[in-house]
Design brief:
four-stranded antiparallel beta sheet, mainly beta, Quinoprot_gluc/sorb_DH_b-prop
Length: 396
C-alpha cells in the first residue's frame, strides 16, 4: 500500500541541513511519499531459528516459548526472569531450575491493566502502566507481593502507551513517556519526555524533553552518561526520519516534533512563539548517531556481563522491532552499537535472519533485553511469544 501526503508550510528548506526561507508569508507545498509494508508473520519453527545469524562463537536458542506477547525483561539476583505483557497486563516469572539454558517454570505473578516497564532493586519490583507506577516485594519463591502505587496521573498514552522504567546510577527512577501522537504540540508537559523521580515516586520532574518515543535507554558503565534510542517521525518518507541515538542530558530538548536529526525541519509542525525552525534547532541537542529510518528501536542496554568477549564491554545492544512505514523493511534484528573512548561510533548487526523470503516474511519482532545471571543476553519477541538466549561459547 502506498500513500502520498502533501504538506503546506510557511518556511522553505533550501539546503539539506539548516537553510530556511526568509519570507515566511509565502506558502509553499512539499510532497512526501509514504509506504506501508508489513512482512507476513510465519511461525518461529526450530528450523527457522537455526537460520538466525550471529557472530562467530555465539549461539541463539529459545529460553522460553508459548508466551503471549512478551515485552520488557528484568532478571533478579537469583536468576529469576520477569517478563511483561501489556496486552494482558501481566508479569510472568520464568525459571530455569535445572540450569540447561531453558526456562522450565512459567507463572503469572502480577496483573494490572497496561503493565509494560519493569525494573528491580533491593528485592522489589517497580512496574509501570500507562498512567501509574507500582512497586511490589519479591517473595522468596519469586512471586510478587501486593502492588502498591507510588506515582499516578501520568499522561494518557495515545499513540505511544508503552512506558519503560529504569534505575540510574544516582539511585533515581527514570521513566520514559512517549508522545501521544506522531507529531503534534502536546497538551501535557510530561508527554514525549524522560521523567525522573525518587524510588518512592516523589520529586517527579521532566529530565529531558522533545523525545517522541525513547523506550530503550541505559547508562554507559564507565562514563555514567545516559543514552537512549528515539523513534523517528512516521510519514516523512522511506528514509526519513532516521532513528536517533541521543545522549540524554538534564534539561535537554531533543527537538520533537519541530526539528530532527541534525536540525532538519518538520514542515508539518511550526515551532512555538513565532520562532523559525532554524532558531528552534539552535536550542536543541542533536543525536550522537542515527540509524535507518523506521527500524523502530525498542530496548537498549550496555553490556555489563562477563560471558561475551572483552571488547563488548561498554558497547550497547539494541533491539529493532521492525518497520511498517517504508517499502523495503528495516529493523527486525538486534544490533550492537560500538563505543570507543565512551563515544558511539557505529552500528553493527548482532542477530539477523528474522526476515525471510526477500523481506516478505518475518518470524520475529524483537523487543526487550536483559542480562541473564550467566552473562548471556535474553531477548523477547512479541510476534511469536518467545524469549531467546544469546550466549557466547567460543574462545576469548
Amino acid at each position: 500500500m502506498k500513500t502520498t501526503t502533501s504538506l503546506l508550510a510557511t518556511a522553505l528548506l533550501l539546503a539539506p541541513v539548516l537553510a530556511f526561507a526568509q519570507d515566511t508569508k509565502k506558502p509553499i507545498s512539499a510532497s512526501i511519499e509514504g509506504n506501508i509494508f508489513k512482512p507476513a508473520k510465519v511461525p518461529a519453527t526450530d528450523e527457522h531459528v537455526r537460520q538466525l545469524k550471529v557472530p562467530t562463537g555465539f549461539t541463539i536458542t529459545k529460553f522460553a516459548e508459548n508466551l503471549n506477547k512478551p515485552r520488557m525483561l528484568a532478571v533478579h539476583t537469583d536468576g529469576t526472569v520477569y517478563v511483561t505483557d501489556r496486552d494482558k497486563g501481566t508479569v510472568t516469572m520464568l525459571r530455569d531450575t535445572n540450569k540447561d539454558g531453558k526456562s522450565d517454570q512459567q507463572k503469572v505473578v502480577a496483573t494490572k491493566e497496561g503493565m509494560h516497564g519493569i525494573a528491580l532493586r533491593n528485592n522489589k519490583a517497580y512496574l509501570v502502566t500507562v498512567n501509574e507506577v507500582y512497586t511490589a516485594d519479591i517473595n522468596k519463591d519469586g512471586t510478587l507481593g501486593q502492588l502498591k502505587m507510588i506515582a499516578d496521573k501520568l499522561p494518557d498514552g495515545g499513540q505511544h502507551a508503552n512506558r519503560t522504567i529504569e534505575f540510574g546510577p544516582d539511585g533515581m527512577l527514570y521513566l520514559s513517556v512517549g508522545s501521544t501522537c506522531n507529531a503534534c504540540k502536546e497538551t501535557s508537559k510530561e508527554s514525549a519526555t524522560v521523567l525522573q523521580m525518587k524510588p518512592d515516586g516523589s520529586s517527579r520532574r521532566v529530565f529531558a524533553k522533545g523525545l517522541r518515543n525513547t523506550i530503550g535507554f541505559d547508562w554507559h558503565p564507565q562514563t555514567k552518561e545516559l543514552y537512549g534510542f528515539d523513534h523517528g517521525i512516521d510519514w516523512l518518507g522511506d528514509n526519513t526520519q532516521e532513528e536517533e541515538l541521543n545522549k540524554l542530558e538534564d534539561g535537554g530538548d531533543y527537538g520533537w516534533p519541530y526539528v530532527f536529526e541534525n536540525g532538519k525541519p518538520n514542515l508539518a509542525d511550526e515551532p512555538p512563539m513565532g520562532m523559525t525552525w532554524e532558531e528552534y534547532a539552535k536550542k536543541t541537542k542533536f543525536p550522537v548517531l542515527t540509524y535507518t529510518a523506521h527500524s523502530a528501536p525498542l530496548d537498549m542496554i550496555f553490556y555489563k556481563g562477563n560471558q561475551f568477549p572483552k571488547d563488548y564491554q561498554g558497547d550497547a545492544i539494541v533491539t529493532l522491532h521492525g518497520s511498517w512505514n517504508r517499502k523495503e523493511p528495516s529493523g527486525y534484528k538486534v544490533v550492537r552499537v560500538r563505543f570507543e573512548n565512551g563515544k558511539p561510533t557505529k552500528v553493527e548487526d548482532l542477530v539477523t535472519g528474522f526476515l525471510m523470503n526477500e523481506g516478505k516474511e518475518q518470524f520475529g519482532r524483537v523487543v526487550g533485553l536483559a542480562h541473564h545471571q550467566d552473562g548471556s543476553i535474553l531477548i523477547s519477541d512479541d510476534a511469536n511469544g518467545i524469549v531467546y538466549r544469546l550466549a557466547y561459547t567460543g574462545k576469548k
